[in-house]
Specification:
There is one protein chain. The chain contains ten helices and 19 strands. By secondary structure, it is an alpha+beta fold. A seven-stranded antiparallel β-sheet has the order 7-6-5-4-10-9-8. Strands 14-13-12-11-17-16-15 form a seven-stranded antiparallel β-sheet, with helices on one face. The chain has a three-stranded antiparallel β-sheet with strand order 2-1-3. A hairpin with a 6-residue loop joins β4 and β5. α1 packs parallel to α3.
Length: about 375
Amino acid sequence: MADINGRRVLELVKKTGNSVCADCNCQVTEYASYNIGVFLCTQCAGIHRALGTHISKIKHLRLDKWEESQVKHLEEVGNIVAKRKYEERVPVCYRRPSENDPQILREQWIRAKYQREEFIHAEKQRYTRGTMEGFLFKRSKVDDSCKQRRFVLSERENTLKYYVSNKKEPKAEIRILDMNVAFAPEKLKPPTSLQITYINQGSTRHIYVYHDDAEVIVEWYMAIRSAKLNLLQVAHPTQPEMELAQSLTQDFLKEGFLCKTGPKPSDGFKRRWFTLDGRKLMYHDQKLDPYPKGEIFIGHLSDGYSIHTGQPAGWKLKDVGFIFHVKTPSRSFVFSAERSDDRNEWIAALQMVISRPMSPQDSFLRGILVKKRGGGSVVSFFSNR
């Protein structure tokens, strides 16, 4: 009977919906939760085990023995039926994780589905209320210290504010529509850390925050997405909701150290930390700098943007690593990577950006992304440094 049950389980995996992970859509399923009735990848199965057997009971599809009752429940449920129950009320603003997304997103998605049942009982979705208030640890912009700050999110005011101690006036007031938020565990170390990036007087500003509780930091992340979606719907009433949802937050397409020179071959290379944030290519002295030294807007190829391996015509730089350059309507920006595979990854990421059609939000960004220099005069957003 054990062999028969095992074969029945393997046949169930072939059914529509069961061949991909029920939680992250990974194309390889190796496990099943036999009490919930879903098929899972290895990573998600590990998270299910951490929930406890009172919530999810896990077995390997091939290595474990299967009982008749367990197989029967899998036959009755399966991924498609389970999704109808556990994902019935997932709000559009909620980011459904894929297999390559940050681990914290996948963990909290699974806990939200099966442990807290947030998408069965919509009243549990505190992040969709348009407001949120609480304390987060914020990194200082001058050193590595982190101090608690009170943060207040208001969709009605289109702001995220944070306060120092008991002061009545906020230390900073950030427009929700001007911000991006991304998980940054590699930079701040805690897996529960976020990088908030926004426009401040024509330039980009970064702040880094974290909370000890993974559920809380993900709630902040989703609350910002929810508020931003509602504000975008007001600003762009004819644009489909699902299209707007795609621009709520963006993981950085690529980050890392590159060497960059100025507009002339004689300017020399300087090592900078680069971040590709949508259509903004920013460079910094160090990875946790609060402000970039310069920002390059990456437009569409039809507007004169292109990416090339090697040096611009007429340049004859020697012994400077693996060179590539970005051609813009203003000038060419020349970069050098330490490895050929790193250069290829940068080129692929930038090619993806210039091939993507410009959205209304991109056009807005291009209009406001300026750089202020001495005397307060506003100049082009292309920096020569």
